[in-house]
Amino acid sequence: LEWGKVCRAVASFAGTAHGREATEKQLWGVESVSYERSRKLLRETEAAVRLLGSSGGALDFSGLDTVAVESAINCVSGGSVIKGQEAMAVVSLMLFVESLQVTIRAAMKQDEDSHNLLLPLTETILDAVVSKLLVKSIQDVIDDDGSVKDTASPELRRYRDQVQALESRLCQLMDKLIRNADNEASLSEVSIVNGRCCIKITGDKSSSFDGLLLSSGSDAGSMIEPIIAVPLNDELQGARALVVRAELEALSKLTDKILLELDNIQILMQETVTLDKVTARARYSIAYDGTLPDLYLPNIEHGIVNAAKDEPASTTSSAQLTKRPWKLFIPNAYHPLLLQQHQENLRRTKKDVASATAEIRRRRIYGQDIAEEDQLASELDFMKIRVSELERNHPIPVDFMIAEETTVLVITGPNTGGKTISLKTVGLASLMAKIGLYILASEPVKIPWFDAVYADIGDEQSLTQSLSTFSGHLKQIGAIRAQSTSQSLVLLDEVGAGTNPLEGAALGMSLLGSFAEAGSFLTLATTHHGELKTLKYSNDSFENACVEFDEENLKPTFRILWGIPGRSNAINIAERLGLPLDIIESSRHLLGTAGAEINALIMDMEKFKQEYHEQLQQAQHYLMQSKELHNDLEVAQKSIVDHGIAQRKRKSRVVSEYAVMARSIIHKKFQQYRESAVAQRVLEEEKAAEKAKSEGAKGPEPASTSAPKKTQNTNSSMVTEANGKIIDENGGIPEVGDLVYVPKLKNQATVVKIDSSKNEVQVQAGMMKLKLKLKDVKVQKQRTSR
């Protein structure tokens, strides 16, 4: 089945070296995975897909150097001193986990379903402790490139300054010696030999200064360390040794701090690799547009599914798959390696097109050779044609719809028609679902959990055991028959091939019959023997299928027709290829009328099947259109409802605003009217008082002279006692609710409120409320309920 290639393809999506290794190791262990473990792996992959969708690039593990982290852990646990690059790798790990925890918590807060889905996968890494103090300690000592900072210790800074000063002095000394050299026939330059500063002299003549000859050669020249530079070189070597010792001391102290957090770092490392492994499965499933399968456990006793007792691995229930109960349902299934190869070729060709386009543009900008540009343009056109061909010749998916009562499926058809690829596709899909990968197919997917997948595909010749192709197949099938169980998937390619057709057909019928009676849960077999197609009509456990063949173009379509046995196309193909007509007629005569009738019947079935699929596709197209129209109508209806609500709110707001304006205007007008009425009454009273004065000046009667006093006594008949109680001099007590007379208004009013501290009373006359002095009102009638 080439499962190893699939394992490597999935592992390539991991971001770390340890993640790739762990992913491939886990996938290779598919045989030992239990049903419960398979469901857990699928839930992990589903959670990682959800997390990738909500977090974007937050799950990019490619920036982590797990090899350096592992080396750091081994150094610290083994008593060695950690290196700067290893310490920074630990910092990168801790900061990544801290950022990842924030991303996971944000994704879990989206809804309850996300929380329940992500919690089992991320619970451990969320509980992991990231020591910010250790991160700061490492960052204070180690630079981003892994070197020890000058600020790591005062001694280190002092020693490095000393090294810098010595190097500067040596450079100045060497420059001076070279400038003072009076031998023009020789060339001199400063060089470093084993950390010591010296002068390289090329030429025949000797140097103009005394020195130690470190090396010499006719071509390379002579390396001379000037005597005057020896003390400085020695001092520089000593200063560099002190720098190394100071750096080692700083790293040693840092190692002690890391040792205290070693357990947490190991947990972070382990959980990061685990999450990288799960994310690799999720990235692979997303990259190839996979579907989460509904994985179920076959019932060993009755041969039916246990899906009703088990919680489905995906949100798609078996009832939603189709009304008919299927044992295996995989629509539009792709062979993962074929799809991977196609996408890689398409990606590579598009990259070549982009590179060639950029090269042509560069040549045009810089005006380079036109002939080469024409050649590149021709190659570019060819590559564009290649891209179009790849986009047009996409791998053809295959539908697998095996009914619940089917135990053995027999697939017939011509060579290179896709029979073997179909077997491998089912086998790989079963392994992928079992190990927690999405299946490269359309939704929905229903597939049983198999305890093992046994395949006999290809030639099995063995020169060392003197086995022929036929013998090799028989040995393989015998081992499969002995090891397979009622929960196994068996894939047999070209059953009965490699020997006499009659004997091969009889042996194939017996083998498939034995698998149907007491063998595997599901057996898929390909064959050229027409006799194996008749098993369906004598045993309900069998089903037929064939690969479609295009007789017009004389090539297979790589599609599978279900429920239809394959028919022979040899005579028809020979006729189309121009074989003499007498040979064609003789062949048909020898084949017999029965065979011709069977082929005609199969041809009618194929046409009916093809028409059915065309009508089904047309119905699905109309269904999709109706769904789109329904969705558009719902959107339009929602827009209308939202628009109506918005209009009602706008109208209500406008009415409220105008109502406020109206109340304000009415209040202002009423205020003006009340002030005008009060002013008019005051004016009338003043006129009446002036008139009374003028009449009194003419000589009023004695009785009339006392009238103003009486009025005055009446106006001031209400006083306030020392205790604050309001009474009038005649003994009347005004209270809230009393009816009083207001002379200024010449009207009656009702007492609403009394303020004894200010000797004021608030009265209401009709719609008006007035605040008056006590002397301006007269009590006429008190409440009867007093």
In short:
One of its GO terms (molecular function) is ATP-dependent DNA damage sensor activity. This protein is of the alpha/beta class and 786 residues long. It has a six-stranded mixed β-sheet with strand order 10-11-12-8-13-14, with helices on both faces.
Description:
The longest helix is centred in the last third of the chain and has 105 residues, at 593-697. It contains 21 helices and 21 strands. Helix 1 (3-11) packs antiparallel against helix 2 and helix 8 runs antiparallel to helix 9. It folds into 6 domains: 3-146 and 252-288, MutS, DNA mismatch repair protein, Chain A, domain 3, CATH 1.10.1420; 154-247, MutS, DNA mismatch repair protein, Chain A, domain 3 (Orthogonal Bundle), CATH 1.10.1420.10; 340-393; 401-459 and 470-567, Rossmann fold; 593-665; 738-779. A hairpin with a 2-residue loop joins strand 19 (760-765) and strand 20. The protein has 786 residues and is of the alpha/beta class. The strands form 6 sheets. It has a 6-stranded mixed beta sheet, with helices on both faces. It has a 5-stranded antiparallel beta sheet with strand order 20-19-18-17-21, with no helix packed on it. Helix content is 55%, strand content 15%.
* Largest beta-sheet details: 6 strands, mixed
How many domain units?
A: 6
Low-confidence regions: 300-322, 460-466, 701-731
Which term fits the overall shape?
flat
Number of helices: 21
Assign a percent range to the helix content: 40-55%
First CA to last CA: what distance? 107 Å
Pfam family, one: MSSS
Keywords: ATP-binding, Coiled coil, DNA-binding, Nucleotide-binding
Biased composition (Basic and acidic residues): 689-698
GO biological process, one term: negative regulation of DNA recombination
